[in-house]
Amino acid sequence: MAETTETLSLAKVAWPLRTDRLLIRPATALDAVTTWEYRRLEPVYRWLSRAPRTLADYRAYFEAPATLAKTLVVERDGEVIGDLMVAVEDAWAQAEVVDQARGVHAELGWAFHPDHGGRGYATEAVRELLRLCFDDLGLRRVTANCFAANEPSWRLMERVGMRRELYTVRESLHRSEGWLDGTGYALLAEEWREQD
Fold first, then answer.
1. Which CATH number does the domain 5-194 belong to among 3.40.630.30, 3.30.43.10, 3.40.30.10, 3.40.630.10?
2. Which of 129, 137, 162, 175 suits a disulfide with 185, CB 3.0-4.6 Å?
């Protein structure tokens, strides 16, 4: 199996990462059941891009090498309370400079157990994810997208200093609510460093 950009990039990191209250580490196949416990809850899965109906379907997706390569779990006192996605990708570039655009961006994502909401854990975890992207991985830009109706997600993006770059009208198809507006946020490495 060829190594992905995510695998190569995340291999450079000294795991686990620690914040004041959290531990962040690469996901393993053993995390499938724990993450399924909150990802199957309606307030969580209603906004996720994939909502497998059974644990078996979820395991098949979660345990796939491509998924594990970009998934991190967030623990609080040894309990998994959420997961993060960091998908390192190439930037668009003209042919003459394409080599300079390899593995310099990342798309971010997250899901957290609702029982742990309102305590700042998601903000703390995503701030550490940004630090990982810019300091440890040396990326130049990160993005995150969500349905515009998913206010908790885009508010989190704003809390960590990301800027709204786009708002699309009925561009995103939701599995039960039809065509919804979407929103996208981004942050450059220099913008992140200016926040300190």
1. 3.40.630.30
2. 162
Over residues 11-67, the pLDDT tens digits come to 889 999 999 999 999 999 999 999 999 999 999 999 999 988 899 999 999 999 999
Supply φ then ψ for residue 36, to 5 degrees. -60, -35
Cα gap 77→155, rounded to integer Å: 26
Decide: pTM greater than 0.85: yes
pLDDT tops 60 at residue 1: no
Specify the DSSP class assigned to residue 133: I
Which pLDDT does position 7 carry in this prediction?
A: 58
Q: What angle do CA 14, 4, 108 make, to 5 degrees?
A: 70
Q: Where are the alpha helices (DSSP H) in 19-148?
A: 32-39, 42-45, 55-62, 65-68, 121-131
Cα–Cα dist 160/168, whole Å? 22
